[in-house]
Design brief:
There is one protein chain. With 229 residues, this protein is mainly beta. It has a single domain, classed as Beta Barrel (Lipocalin), CATH 2.40.128.90. The protein contains 1 helix and 11 strands; from the N terminus they run H-E-E-E-E-E-E-E-E-E-E-E.
Length: 229
């Protein structure tokens, strides 16, 4: 009987998704993330360096459908082009140039006043860091787990949600979490359009990369627009 449990769980998730997702939908958002935090590209020999506060654009797009078993799909992208502050320890500034991309396959468990999604996917970090004139290239892939939960306040246009991804495999550990409040100023049969404000935390640890252990802690508020077709 144990061999049937996993397939039955998949079927149950797919049927639940079918029950909740009645229409085909396309979602997209764009926001400006104001980042600070700290960086350490060689934990064995260096102290953490504070990041010089800066902003970047983060994007996501999702496609949802009512087909049983087949998951919905979501893609997220963030450009991290940052520098650390000068310090008194004789450390040169660190230049950070990373593309962070997630591809997520998920099921809607609830999609009413209360919303809940769970899924799996893959994340990629691609780019480089530079310090003392030395470049360290980064190109890492890792599987992730995904969860989202939220709720709407009926007849007001107000909603709130939180989402997170996590991985800790093959010397790559990434925790990415955000929470936000949104107000829809356009609500119609064909389009919901809203403004949102939130806070995001992205923690990255890369071990034994070119004989280095790296750590990046990014955090800060964001504002943006969200559209649901």
């Amino acid at each position: 009987m144990k061999f049937y449990k996993l397939p039955l769980c998949v079927v149950a998730l797919g049927l639940s998704s079918f029950a909740q997702a009645d229409f085909i939908g396309l979602k997209g958002d764009i926001s400006y993330w104001n980042i600070d935090g700290n960086s350490n590209i060689n934990k064995k020999y260096q102290a953490d360096q504070d990041i010089d506060r800066d902003g970047t654009v983060q994007l996501s797009v999702a496609f949802e459908h009512p087909v049983p078993i087949i998951p919905n799909i979501k893609a997220k992208y963030t450009k991290l082009n940052l520098e650390t502050k000068a310090n008194t320890l004789g450390l040169d500034k660190t230049e950070i140039n990373l593309d962070h991309t997630d591809l997520i396959f998920y099921y809607e468990i609830l999609d009413n006043v209360v919303k809940a999604d769970i899924g799996v996917g893959a994340t990629r970090l691609n780019g480089n860091t530079k310090q003392f004139g030395q470049n360290v290239n980064i190109d890492e892939y890792s599987p992730i787990i995904y969860a989202e939960a939220g709720a709407k306040l009926p007849f007001t246009g107000l909603s709130a949600k939180a989402e997170a991804t996590y991985t800790n495999i093959n010397d790559v550990k990434i925790t990415d979490a955000q929470a936000e409040i949104q107000y829809n100023f356009v609500q119609s049969l064909f389009l919901d359009l809203g403004a949102k404000v939130g806070y995001r935390v992205l923690n990255i640890e890369l071990n034994d990369l070119n004989k280095r252990d790296m750590k990046f802690d990014f955090k800060g508020p964001y504002i943006g627009l969200d559209a649901h077709f």
